[in-house]
């Protein structure tokens, strides 16, 4: 086996720490060829579609890509901005703001960059660039608060597959989830309250998460449970009873049963049952994207109103909200313990005794100077 060539290195050069904020991905443009390339990469991932490869190859290349690419491109065109894809724009801004806030908190040497699991900038491309910058400690921070093998698990696959071809592998930390982290829940609460302050409060709050096949739950994927825990914690922060909110799942694909209740049919039934106003938030998406701006804010709104609903209010994702950037910084700092010496006294006290002892050793003091 041959390994990639290592970048030039000078002994005595201090190593750096880095955080990679990884989101799902997006086409490079709202065009059929760009969307086709993106969908091919995305839907070829065995983590995303667990169907025998030979059968799925035929379905993907003979049915989905030829017919779905053009339709998806038209949908992307409805949400595309002058800056580009909303998901990419928001994720990039989050990375920049996170780096700035970490710097304000004293983590000056920590680099924060963005990567996409599918599309560009790709994870291998970003990881190679960090190696060239002498980053030898890298924390992978998924943009998905709730763990699923289809999302966070796929990021892990890509990271370790990349480093299988690298001779000098950096120290890695994989952040699995933060679905119940106070910084995340508080940011969701503030987003909802800010919307209610301006627009008033609806009759029911729907929390719509991205769907996954039901069989993944039966096989041990914790995603369903983590979504419901997020919802319970957010409802508690908002003072909502169990009758005042509902968890649903969107973006169903194919004919297999997915996690239920499904978002669109549920909204239609609510309208038919006489519900006049609904507020909807997508807690599992930290950046607005096709699934929130087109599928929910446009299609779901149309379905609800066509069925007799009077008002549909989509509550935007966390995006660059100050509370969310602070929450991201809190999450990141927890995973930098032992790497970056600018931890707060409370964080240092929370370290295991072994970690505190390490900081007092000659090696620990050497890290302090980096």
Automatic annotation (TrEMBL):
Q: Which GO terms describe its biological process?
A: heme biosynthetic process
Q: One GO CC term of this entry?
A: cytoplasm
Where in the cell is the protein located?
Cytoplasm
Q: In which pathway does it act?
A: Porphyrin-containing compound metabolism; protoheme biosynthesis; protoheme from protoporphyrin-IX: step 1/1
Q: Which UniProt keywords apply?
A: Cytoplasm, Heme biosynthesis, Iron, Lyase, Metal-binding, Porphyrin biosynthesis
Q: Does the keyword Nucleus apply?
A: no
Task: Note the CDD domains from the entry.
Answer: Ferrochelatase_C, Ferrochelatase_N
Protein residues bound to Fe(2+): 210, 291
Q: Where is this region: Disordered?
A: 343-370
EC number, as in UniProt: 4.98.1.1
Q: Where is the composition biased (Low complexity)?
A: 343-360
Q: Which HAMAP family match?
A: Ferrochelatase (MF_00323)
The entry's function note states: Catalyzes the ferrous insertion into protoporphyrin IX.
Assigned protein family: Belongs to the ferrochelatase family.
What's this protein's name? Ferrochelatase
């Amino acid at each position: 086996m041959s390994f990639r060539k290592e970048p030039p290195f000078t002994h005595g050069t201090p190593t750096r720490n880095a955080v990679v904020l990884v989101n799902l991905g997006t086409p490079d443009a709202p065009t059929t060829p760009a969307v086709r390339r993106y969908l091919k990469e995305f839907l070829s991932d065995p983590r995303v579609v667990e169907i025998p490869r030979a059968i799925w190859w035929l379905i993907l290349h003979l049915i989905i890509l030829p017919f779905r690419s053009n339709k998806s491109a038209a949908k992307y065109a409805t949400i595309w901005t002058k800056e580009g894809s909303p998901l990419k724009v928001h994720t990039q801004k989050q990375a920049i703001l996170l780096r700035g806030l970490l710097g304000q908190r004293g983590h000056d040497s920590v680099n924060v960059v963005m990567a996409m699991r599918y599309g560009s900038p790709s994870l291998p491309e970003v990881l190679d660039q960090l190696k060239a910058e002498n980053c030898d400690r890298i924390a992978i921070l998924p943009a998905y608060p709730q763990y699923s093998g289809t999302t966070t698990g796929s990021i892990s696959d890509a990271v370790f597959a990349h480093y299988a071809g690298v001779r000098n592998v950096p120290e890695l930390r994989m952040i699995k989830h933060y679905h119940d982290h106070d910084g995340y829940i508080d940011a969701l609460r503030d987003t909802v309250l800010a919307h209610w302050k301006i627009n008033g409060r609806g009759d029911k709050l729907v929390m719509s998460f991205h769907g996954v096949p039901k069989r993944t739950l039966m096989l041990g994927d914790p995603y369903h449970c983590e979504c419901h825990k997020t919802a319970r914690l957010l409802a508690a922060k908002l003072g909502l009873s169990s009758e005042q909110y509902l968890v649903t799942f969107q973006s169903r694909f194919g004919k297999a049963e997915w996690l239920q209740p499904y978002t669109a049919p549920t909204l239609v039934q609510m309208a038919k049952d006489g519900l006049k106003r609904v507020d909807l938030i997508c807690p599992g998406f930290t950046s607005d994207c096709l699934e929130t701006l087109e599928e929910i804010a446009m299609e779901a709104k149309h379905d609800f109103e066509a069925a007799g609903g009077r008002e549909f209010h989509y509550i935007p994702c966390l995006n660059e909200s100050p509370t969310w950037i602070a929450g991201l910084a809190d999450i990141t700092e927890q995973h930098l313990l032992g790497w970056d010496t600018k931890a707060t006294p409370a964080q240092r006290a929370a370290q295991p005794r072994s970690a505190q002892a390490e900081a007092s050793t000659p090696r620990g003091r050497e890290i302090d100077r980096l």
